[in-house]
């Protein structure tokens, strides 16, 4: 598929309709509209078929393709001006430049000053600096007074100050990204001395850039975001929660800036704050945050999909963690088809949602369905270690619940080979294996109270504790203990 065909294939219905309204209705334009329709209907159509349909020679077809390419890009630029602040600002700069070239200096100055004010209002300092450069050119052409020059250079220095702060914060952001990309974010590798040293260095730089009320929203946003991510890496979830809350508060305080500068800023912030709420067991505020996610009005299909992932994942996790299992399963059954049909989810996203669905099936006693879902997940290559760990642990518990001793023994043998390769990081899984192995050999000696006690000791390690987010093993054992006590009471009666 060539570049033109790829571009046409990427258009959504609204973009196609806008393009057809945007083009002039002349005889020549009808030709490239016909070309557009042919490619739209069959993106892999070859040049021979196009020449035959349009009755053109190779040179004419090449010229028509170039014309269509340029026209499509122009219409898309105009279409996306309402969605993209940056396209809109660049267009305004182009208009000012055209006015200057036409000698309309007063009009050009008026538009430049208007653009400078708008850029200041939304803190788009790169484009404000560009607008000041245009104004400087207008003043040169008009021979303006020194007072005008003083103001322009003072404003340019102010822009450069904000941009220098922003670039410094982006540099720190990049350093943190390199740590997480190279080392992962599971907390296992991040406990190394080398990584701790890198994080300490990043935090020292952050101290120097602590923001004030005068600091731009862009810099403050990145400062809070970096602090929150470091909190998650260090298992300091209180710090993570507080800084993600500051990020969201920033969006509430400056909605106009955040909506224009950060694509779907609000939805991403809500999702991050929900995850931090889970990790700090602050469940009371989650329903309101989920409702905010649900009410998001998003312009692009990409971000509607992103928001659907956030809402589905976070709702399933919330209903699991607060014990609303029937409501959770009902929700899962309503969204499951859409989740499985959404091929645009990446592997990690889809596997996380599918696992949460399997957990809710388990809590509702649907063990065969749970096993089927887990087998589907375990057949996926390149799952994250957290997903694999949770799937293996729940698979063992399911086999125990349905008393399938042969399958349980098979799983234990298989998983032991995996876990023995790195025993230091498999605390919960090793405990599950140990106690369910005992149950296989001597069921009457299966001691759920000691099982629970070892789990409680294990999850004092934050890395192990965070695994309960995927499957709350502690709550499962507590319920087993309660059921066992009730059974003993009935036997005594």
Order of helices and strands: HHHHHHHHHHHHHHHHHHHHHHHHH
Radius of gyration from the CA trace? 30 Å
Q: Report helical residue fraction.
A: over 70%
- What multimeric state do the chains show? single chain
Can you walk me through this structure?
By secondary structure, the chain is mostly helical. The termini are far apart. The chain has helices spanning 3-10, 13-22, 27-41, 47-54, 58-80, 85-101, 105-121, 125-142, 146-183, 193-208, 217-233, 237-253, 255-261, 265-279, 286-294, 301-321, 325-341, 347-363, 367-378, 385-401, 405-419, 427-441, 448-458, 462-465, 473-492. The relative contact order is 0.04. Among the domains are: 3-158, no CATH class; 384-493, no CATH class.
Explain briefly what this protein structure is.
The chain has 493 residues and is mainly alpha-helical.
What are the main properties of this structure?
0% strand; globular; 493 residues; 25 helices; mainly alpha
Walk me through the topology:
Blueprint: H1 3-10, H2 13-22, H3 27-41, H4 47-54, H5 58-80, H6 85-101, H7 105-121, H8 125-142, H9 146-183, H10 193-208, H11 217-233, H12 237-253, H13 255-261, H14 265-279, H15 286-294, H16 301-321, H17 325-341, H18 347-363, H19 367-378, H20 385-401, H21 405-419, H22 427-441, H23 448-458, H24 462-465, H25 473-492
């Amino acid at each position: 598929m060539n570049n033109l065909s790829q571009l046409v294939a990427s258009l959504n219905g609204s973009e196609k309709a806008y393009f057809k309204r945007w083009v002039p209705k002349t005889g020549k334009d009808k030709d490239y509209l016909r070309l557009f329709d042919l490619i739209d209907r069959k993106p892999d159509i070859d040049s021979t078929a196009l020449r035959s349909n349009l009755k053109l020679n190779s040179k004419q077809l090449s010229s028509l393709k170039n014309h269509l390419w340029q026209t499509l890009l122009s219409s898309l630029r105009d279409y996306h001006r309402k969605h993209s602040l940056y396209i809109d600002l660049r267009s305004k700069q182009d208009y000012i430049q055209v006015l200057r070239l036409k000698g309309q200096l007063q009009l050009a100055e008026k538009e430049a000053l208007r653009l400078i004010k708008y850029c200041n209002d939304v803190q788009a300092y790169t484009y404000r600096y560009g607008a000041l450069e245009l104004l400087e050119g207008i003043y040169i052409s008009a021979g303006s007074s020194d007072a005008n020059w003083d103001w322009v250079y003072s404003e340019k220095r102010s822009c450069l100050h904000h941009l220098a702060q922003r670039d410094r914060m982006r540099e720190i952001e990049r350093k943190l990204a390199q740590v997480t990309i190279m080392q992962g974010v599971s907390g296992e590798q991040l406990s190394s001395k080398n990584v701790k040293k890198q994080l300490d260095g990043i935090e020292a730089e952050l101290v120097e850039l602590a923001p004030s009320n005068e600091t731009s929203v862009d810099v403050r946003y990145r400062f809070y975001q970096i602090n929150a991510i470091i909190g998650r890496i260090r298992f300091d979830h209180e710090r993570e929660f507080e800084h993600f809350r500051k990020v969201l508060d920033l969006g509430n305080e400056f909605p106009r800036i955040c909506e224009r500068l950060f694509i779907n800023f609000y939805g991403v912030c809500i999702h991050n704050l929900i995850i931090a709420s889970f990790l700090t067991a602050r469940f009371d505020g989650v329903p309101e945050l989920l409702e905010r996610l649900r009410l998001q009005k998003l312009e692009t299909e990409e971000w509607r999909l992103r928001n659907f992932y956030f809402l589905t994942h976070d709702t399933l996790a919330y209903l699991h963690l607060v014990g609303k299992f029937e409501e959770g399963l009902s929700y899962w059954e309503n969204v499951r088809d859409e989740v499985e049909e959404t091929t645009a989810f990446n592997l990690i996203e889809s596997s996380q949602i599918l696992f949460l669905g399997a957990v809710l099936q388990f809590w509702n006693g649907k063990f065969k369905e749970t096993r089927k879902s887990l087998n589907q997940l375990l057949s996926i290559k390149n799952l994250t270690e957290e997903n694999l760990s949770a799937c293996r642990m729940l698979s063992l518990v399911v086999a125990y619940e349905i008393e399938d001793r042969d399958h349980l023994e098979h799983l234990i043998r298989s998983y032991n080979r995996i876990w023995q390769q790195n025993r230091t990081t498999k605390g919960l899984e090793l405990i599950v294996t140990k106690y369910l192995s005992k149950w296989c050999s001597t069921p009457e000696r299966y001691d759920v109270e000691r099982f629970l006690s070892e789990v409680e000791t294990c999850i004092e390690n934050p890395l192990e504790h965070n695994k309960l987010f995927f499957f709350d093993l502690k709550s499962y054992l507590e319920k087993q203990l309660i059921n066992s006590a009730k059974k003993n009471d009935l036997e005594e009666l």
